[in-house]
Amino acid sequence: MMTTGWCSRAFVVLSLLSLYVYGQKLVGGFQNRNPTDEDVVQAAKFAVNAFNSLSNEEYDYKLMKIVSAATQVIAGVRYDLNVEMGKTNCNREFTYDISSCDIIQDPKLARTYLCFFSVVEVPWENQESLVAVNCKVQQ
């Protein structure tokens, strides 16, 4: 009888310890990501392009820096991104490749945003959606 009770307590303790040690790796949990990972960069570019499509700004914005990134496996992948983006010299009325646009450096005209974006990608359905946006003008 003593052996059975001890074994079951040891099992519970070891199970809790493994949850504590490996808890960050559980499916559905957020994982910090390297901002330079290609999938993270693509999600950030998608978010900035979606921001440009939704905004009423006269000029488009361009990704400057991915400050931080985390992903969560859901029915697809959710990317939570903190990014800096800058106002470009490209007017929204014209068609262009954003990579050819320069970020405005003149302090009188320049504007930089620090934004939180949440992007959900469902690769097997070829879908990407911007599900959350929160931007603040940086001083």
Automatic annotation (TrEMBL):
Top-rank taxon, per record: Eukaryota
Gene Ontology terms, MF aspect: cysteine-type endopeptidase inhibitor activity
Pfam family, one: Cystatin
Protein name: Cystatin domain-containing protein
Keywords annotated in UniProt: Disulfide bond, Protease inhibitor, Signal, Thiol protease inhibitor
Family, similarity comment: Belongs to the cystatin family.
GO CC annotations, alphabetized: cytoplasm; extracellular space; vesicle
InterPro entries listed in its UniProt record: Cystatin_dom, Cystatin_sf
Keyword Signal: yes
N-terminal signal peptide: 1-23
Residues of the Cystatin domain: 25-136
